[in-house]
Specification:
alpha/beta, 8-stranded mixed sheet, Glucose Oxidase, domain 1, signal, protease, 7-stranded parallel sheet, single chain, 780 residues, Peptidase_S8/S53_dom, Alpha-Beta Plaits
Length: 780
């Protein structure tokens, strides 16, 4: 989900249109038909043609003719699971929902997009001959499937120099279309397909001939090209963005193969990019067939969300089937932070990603007339703005004219207020559009620059035409305002921006990064992990770039997601037999809780605070450590079934989702026993005992001892305190007893539990909240 391009989530509802009785039934059906997804759960036959024929038969029996069934069918989902998308009236959808084999029938819905130095910062440098990159040949045998806006194949990041033959498990291909054919693919970009039927069925006014978008895998937006670069782009040296971000651009797994599945389309009349759930599900279905090792999905919806067995959350349903086939699914956590409970893509089989900053700052000195120097943030590369009049537009108290110091409303001020001056304004908005709007207004009025005071932590982008626009936080903005009000002739000087890299610049969870707790299942910690997602330099389409090299900086959990996908591709290349849960565990339990320099990680917001598990999950990804975690918290189908039972999902829905009869135990097992690499207890009264199981993936004969840092006001006891692994014992369970001395409802307190053999430290977060008042109310 791109953070800085406004998108609208459109939920397509089945409309009942009351027509004049003289109109024919056929005309009525045409008006009322909408795309519905008919989900049948796990497929019951391995032959895709047989599965598709069964879908036709079901529609035929509903609609009355083979021709109508064929015309109604939009997609047949036949590889990873069984189901289809079809154009149905509301009454037809209701009728087919009553068929015993049908799990759910829901109307199509729409998702939106969630967007150099990353790999050096995370310790993945090819210069070290013994690191993860070289051990895995930079992921050459891994295939990363990207579900997004398409790909710009001419970009240098898709060159296949020095890359060997295509992995033998690849079964996909490249689909021709507008300005795209199979010759655009190579040994790097090995697959490219597009899915538009769901989108077209719900946007009948869309004119494919006149649209700016390409009816093919080619990328108009640039988002898909950008995220593909981060995950698995080839080495491209000597790239510079406005002279500030310079160096080599590459993906985390720079020899991994990329397969693009385009599902997002540009609506010219609304200026939004829209992604149909029906198209996304078909893309995931095809990717499972094609042989991808990891699916990278920088898309998502907003809260409130649907439950994990609800097909209305197409990504969650498709991801479940992908994970059962050994494909790790990595999704953006969303850009609705810093508010709590905003994280999305929260199913426990998905790796959900938060975004952090890098150790990079674009420092821009602002010198006031009293010689005070303030370091703002900007991407300004123009000439220094010498001492110039500085103004904050406000009513002096003796005028009837309009004045506004709000960045979005600067245009209401008279030009005389701003002409030949640098203007200070304030904004509560997190979006770069506010800065761009302020810069345009000041420039149009004849001003020379703008200083934008806003909440800290928002990403920086250059203003149009390299107009001087510098961001400061509200505190510094207020300091500047007080100087203006106290000085008879306030002046300011703005210097050109400089890039600072390394230890002086602290790592922070980005303000926009969506936060936990999980609003669907509070006991499931989300997000899982964090990666850099602020001002990330990567490739884009040449028709949207700000320079002729085809590279741009973007920010969002969209950009953090493919960073994790790249790490997953490396781990999969090293450990082909690891399950998606084992890979997730390795990433989470070895993550940095501090930045790579040992400094604490803060979470941006109001107020700024130390980051906790609801900000960054396990922490900041540490690829080298994740390659050799020692122990993992693994999960399989039976674990997911037990989770769904404990979460209270319907047995029938679970049975059809997993493809076999499921009877939940009575009493149900506790959701707290779900074998996650975390412990989250949202409603502790007195005490609780839960179980976890660890699998040895390190040295055969190993002994681990436990180290506990209990949350404040809680007692944590672990039995046994020592775990012994050998050739006969590869899995060992332990119990954790947690009790509290708190007598009131509390917020969450945080601690940790670590198993250590002196080489490997396998750490999980312990997050606990008491809910004594609710229990007291229930008992009385």
């Amino acid at each position: 989900m791109r953070n800085y391009r406004t998108s609208i989530v459109v939920v397509v509802l089945s409309l009942v249109i009351f027509l004049n009785v003289q109109r024919s039934f056929v005309a009525q059906a045409i008006v009322e038909r909408k795309v519905h997804i008919v989900y049948l759960g796990e497929k019951q036959h391995d032959d895709p043609e047989f599965v598709t024929e069964s879908h036709h038969q079901m529609l035929w029996s509903l609609l009355g003719s083979k021709e109508d069934a064929h015309e109604s069918l939009v997609y047949s989902y036949r590889h990873g699971f069984s189901g289809f998308a079809a154009k149905l009236t509301k009454s037809q959808a209701k009728k087919i929902a009553d068929v015993p084999e049908v799990v759910h029938v829901i109307p199509d819905s729409f998702y939106k997009l969630k967007t150099t130095r990353t790999w050096d910062y995370l310790g993945l440098s090819a210069a070290n001959p013994k690191n993860l990159l070289n051990e895995t040949n930079m992921g050459a045998q891994s295939i990363i499937g990207v579900i997004d806006t398409g790909v710009w194949p001419e970009s240098e990041v898709f060159n296949d120099h020095g890359i060997g033959p295509v992995p033998s498990h690849w079964k996909g291909g490249c689909e021709s279309g507008e300005a795209f054919n199979s010759s655009h693919c190579n040994k790097k970009l090995i697959g490219a397909k597009y899915f538009i039927n769901g989108f077209l069925s719900e946007n009948e006014s869309f004119n494919s001939t006149e649209s700016l978008d390409f009816i093919s895998p080619r990328d108009l937006d640039g988002h898909g090209t950008h995220v593909s670069t981060i995950a698995g782009g080839s080495y491209v040296p000597n790239i510079s963005y406005k002279g500030l971000a310079e160096g080599t651009v590459r993906g985390g797994a720079s020899r991994a193969r990329i397969a693009m599945y385009k599902v997002c389309w540009y609506l010219d009349d609304e200026d939004i990019t829209s992604c149909s759930s029906a198209d996304i599900l078909k893309a995931m279905d095809e990717a499972m067939h094609d042989g991808v090792d990891v699916l990278s999905i920088s898309l998502g919806s907003d809260v409130p969300m649907y439950g994990e067995t609800d097909i209305r959350d197409g990504i969650t349903t498709g991801a479940f089937h992908a994970v059962l086939k050994g494909i790790t699914v990595v999704c953006a956590g969303g850009n609705s932070g810093p508010e709590a409970q905003t994280v999305t893509n929260t199913a426990p089989w998905i790796v959900t990603v938060a975004a952090t900053t890098l150790d990079r700052s674009f420092a821009t000195p602002i010198t006031l007339g009293n010689n005070k120097v303030i370091l703002g943030q900007a991407m300004y590369t123009g000439p220094e703005v010498g001492f110039t009049s500085l103004v904050y537009p406000e009513n002096p108290g003796n005028s009837n004219a309009n004045f506004s110091g709000t960045c979005e409303e600067l245009s209401v001020n008279s030009n005389l207020t701003m002409v030949g001056k640098v203007v200070l304004c304030f904004t509560p908005s997190p979006y770069s559009a506010s800065a761009s709007s302020a810069a345009r207004s000041v420039k149009k009025a004849g001003g020379l620059g703008v200083i934008i005071a806003r909440q800290p932590g928002y990403a920086i982008r250059p203003c149009p035409d390299d107009f001087p626009c510098v961001a400061v936080d509200w505190e510094l903005g207020t300091d500047i305002l007080l100087y203006i009000r106290s000085s008879g002739l306030p002046v300011v000087k703005i210097k050109t921006s400089r890039t600072l890299i390394g230890q002086p610049v602290g790592t922070k969870v980005a303000t926009f990064s969506s936060r936990g707790p999980n609003s669907i299942a509070a006991a499931i910690l989300k997000p899982d992990i964090a990666a850099p997602g602020v001002s990330i330099l990567a490739a884009t389409t040449t028709n949207t770039t700000f320079n002729d090299q085809g590279f741009i900086m973007m920010s969002g959990t969209s950009m953090a997601t493919p960073a994790i996908s790249g790490v997953v591709a490396l781990l999969k290349a090293l450990h082909r037999d690891w399950s998606p849960a084992a890979i997730r565990s390795a990433i989470v339990t070895t993550a940095w809780r501090t930045d790579p320099f040992g400094e604490q990680i803060f979470a941006e917001g109001s107020p700024r605070k130390l980051a906790d598990p609801f900000d960054y999950g396990g922490g900041l990804v540490n690829p080298e450590k994740a390659a050799k975690p020692g122990l993992v918290y693994d999960l399989g189908l039976e674990d997911y079934v037990l989770y769904m039972c404990s979460a209270g999902y319907n047995e029938s829905s679970i049975s059809q989702l997993v493809g076999k009869a499921t009877i939940c135990s009575n009493p149900k097992l506790s959701i707290l026993d779900f074998n996650l690499p975390s412990i989250t207890i949202p409603n502790l009264k007195d005490e609780v005992t839960l179980t976890r199981t660890l699998t040895n993936v390190g040295p055969l004969d190993s002994v681990y001892r436990v180290v506990v840092e209990p949350p404040l006001g809680f007692q944590v006891t672990v039995e046994p305190k020592t775990l012994v692994f050998n050739s006969q014992t590869k899995r060992v369970s332990f119990k954790v007893r947690i009790s509290t001395t708190h007598k009131i409802n509390t917020g969450y307190y945080f601690g940790s539990l670590t198993w250590s053999d002196s080489v490997h430290n396998v750490t999980i977060h312990v997050s606990v909240r008491t809910q004594i008042l609710q229990n007291y109310y229930d008992e009385n």
